[in-house]
Structure prediction request, 292 residues.
Amino acid sequence: MGIFSGLEDIVETDHPLAKRTWYGLGGPADYFIRPQTTEQLKDVVRRCDENGIRMYVMGFGSNLLIEDEGLRGAVIKFEAEPFAHIEFEGHEVTAGAGAELSKLVLTCVEKGLSGIEALTGIPGSVGGAVRMNAGGNFGDFGAAVETVTLMDKAGNIFEKSKPELVFDYRQTNITAKFILSARLKLSAADPEQVMRTVKEIWIYKKNSQPLNTKNSGCIFKNPRGVSAGALIDRAGLKGLRIGGAVVSDKHANFIIAENGCTSRDVMRLIEAIKQRVQEQFDVELELEIEIW
Ligand SMILES: Cc1cc2nc3c(=O)[nH]c(=O)nc-3n(C[C@H](O)[C@H](O)[C@H](O)COP(=O)(O)OP(=O)(O)OC[C@H]3O[C@@H](n4cnc5c(N)ncnc54)[C@H](O)[C@@H]3O)c2cc1C
Prediction:
């Protein structure tokens, strides 16, 4: 471990990534690194850079499909307390990138703060929710985010705030590699009322998504004005199976990984869906999940 000598406590080699993702699929990463401090993160980034090691930042792996061969490079995960800290100040909250989104939503509700209850039922970390501008029918994370603290590959830490910080459907204009934290602007509300909204959204999710399966949420982005799930459904693809990968009967934009499924099965099913939707509706579906 010459490249990371002295950092053996936080660097694992040949680390199986499957257990780090919601899909539970895919091979190992050359390096899996959990920095404990910002200084350590900078050190890791410098060493990766000097040795030409490609870096990946992983949140909770709820929007990722890892290839069966795994990946050549270093996966960096913000798990340690300094990266997962949540701090309230009046109607504002600053949450570390490694904080769990669902925990943040519930803590805000308990404190009578409204603004992110739309994120109910969306798994993942705060960093992942910023990067993906996670959301759905009820609203998205970007609506509440005022400022993000970022770090670039050179180790420079800086903030980006609205209006320079822009969120769009499942994307942002953040180009820095690392999202360290996000500051949210919320508003005071009756905790019981916000909790009622949370429950309504949760019931909606439970009824419309195959939540107790291995999946990665929506596979495709919704093309402008249309639901990708509706197109896949209308193409008659619910239940289509390749190997252990199957299109959910409950929500056609979800691909479920059943026993024995490989990432290759999911990727082949993705291609089959894209082809059929293209042929039938002349629509090119774009991936929402990331394949590493
Ligand atoms: C059952 C289920 C339901 C879902 N429902 C929804 C939904 O309703 N709406 C929705 O939008 N999504 C949904 N998703 C997808 C997923 O939950 C979101 O995209 C989530 O925001 C991803 O967060 P994560 O921490 O798991 O990120 P990961 O999957 O680990 O990573 C996703 C991307 O974010 C980047 N990233 C993560 N952390 C950082 C960081 N600190 N700095 C820089 N980049 C970072 C990664 O590099 C990667 O590019 C669902 C997924 C599942 C499994």
Observations:
- The mean pLDDT is 96.
- The radius of gyration is 20 Å.
- The longest strand covers residues 178-185.
